[in-house]
Amino acid sequence: MFLKNCWYVGAWSHELAAGNVIGRTIIGEPVALYRTQEGALHAVADRCPHRWVPLSLGRVEGDALRCGYHGLVFGPDGRCQHIPGADRIVPGANVRTFPVEERDSWLWVWMGDPARADPALIPSAFGLNDPRWTMRADQIDYAANYMLINDNLLDLSHVDFVHEKTLGAATDYGWSDEVPRVKPLNRGVRIERWLTGRRQSQTNPNLVDTWSTYDYLAPGVFIMENKSYPHGMAERCGFGEPGDKPMTYRVEQQAVAPINDRETRYFFATGFDATNLPGHLVEGIFSLVMSAFKEDRAIIEAQQLLWDRTDASMAKAFIPSDKAPAMFRRIMDSLIREEEAAGAAAAA
Asked: What's this model's pTM, rounded to 2 decimal places?
């Protein structure tokens, strides 16, 4: 079950060059994203209404998309403009269109009612081209439901165990020592914590306090900031949000994009303040991050297999670190119920 009136990440901006088309599946719906030579961005159903061939196998012509099978041409409004060998446009030859926006190096697609597509609901991120940051990005696919990945990202206590030799070691552990503060947001939650008295790095024994905060927003968008300070800063600011300039400043933007009920694409980028960290050091850090996400995938895909073989009525133990995942699941359930109720009322 998916929330439809929502913006989903369909691709990184750099995946779609001018004059090109790519195919994506988002919440079970095939979507063709294309750019005109002038750079205008469009999204239509990736299914020709003639023989149901993916339009993403076709080509961009002007502001239109030509099917690569029998040559039908569709405009950005979804209307069929030309059928080879026909003197008129036959009934049923149009395709669905989707609102689409480009923000912070992501291509966002609205999967629900176009009339309700509000760009203000797109979460703000950092982007890959901001000169303030040295950023690296990638994506991986999971054979798992997207909500299991959301659960994982909303409870970072697992870093000490799943990533014991990667991110756990690199951050000097401590993610499971205390439950973070969790605050409700519109369509999401904010998670805050201090990691105090940790080594600055595996090669630097100086102790630091790190302020870690992230917003987690529907349907699964993770926007994080990590700032490190000399040890003692957490206590000096009463374990609240610091206002001083940090020694190091790291950011993350990640998006969980369900392909269907059992497949998910995970977009992620990590970056550092470009004034504090040479670019060549970022490569090693990003390699560590990539290794950690593969560790997550192994755990979550194994979890999915077991969930599929387990009676859904079986109770699961609830521990303190489950607060954020549980809160976010309630938020998503509420948004989906509201959407279904509105749809039923409109149909009555």
From this structure: 0.95
